[in-house]
């Protein structure tokens, strides 16, 4: 096992499995839900990007001296359950999940990466980049809403469900993997080193964390046209 903090290996492990499952789910949605060959090709391209991200994370774990299989294993059940509970029923739901559901999960991982070494933080930022996915999803969802505004209500409810399931998943992961949880909330190096929160500032940081998550979620919903913009 590597000399890196346990939280770093856990962060890379959960991200690696998240990217692997994202590849598999996007490829499945492309094959079964895409309404045109153009959409199928575009979503398949996003799936290929997710797999490339998985390879980067797997190789980083190996470089750190960690076994990628062992690093991912603790997160398999939780992430598989999340995907099972949020299986989209149609093309538009698949797009919203790819943007809103995956997006808020990514926000958790970005928050954790604020407290790791610069190389790991750079890698996390790279694999969680949303520009291509955002453009693809926003364009298609907005076009669908322009064609039939009645989609807005059900898609807003679906997005709310994505967030609820993602937050529940985050709580489960935090409870099961305390080192990973500390990356999310520890406001001091002493807390990370001791394996427990060290000051009341950590409680303040939890409030700030959820405020940032809510802000980013609101931006995504506005971009999709599911809530009024600022």
Fold and architecture overview:
This protein is an all-alpha fold and 230 residues long. It has 11 helices and no strands. The longest helix has 28 residues. α1 packs antiparallel against α2 and α1 runs antiparallel to α5. The chain is globular, with a radius of gyration of 18 Å.
SS summary, helix count? 11
Strand content: under 5%
How far apart the termini lie comes to 47 Å
Residue-averaged pLDDT, rounded? 84
Secondary-structure element pattern, one letter each: HHHHHHHHHHH
What gross morphology would you assign?
globular
Largest sheet: none
> What percent of the residues sit in helical stretches (DSSP H or I)?
over 70%
Unreliable runs, pLDDT <50, ≥5 residues? 187-195
Structural class: mainly alpha
- How many DSSP-defined strands? 0
Rg, rounded, reads 18 Å
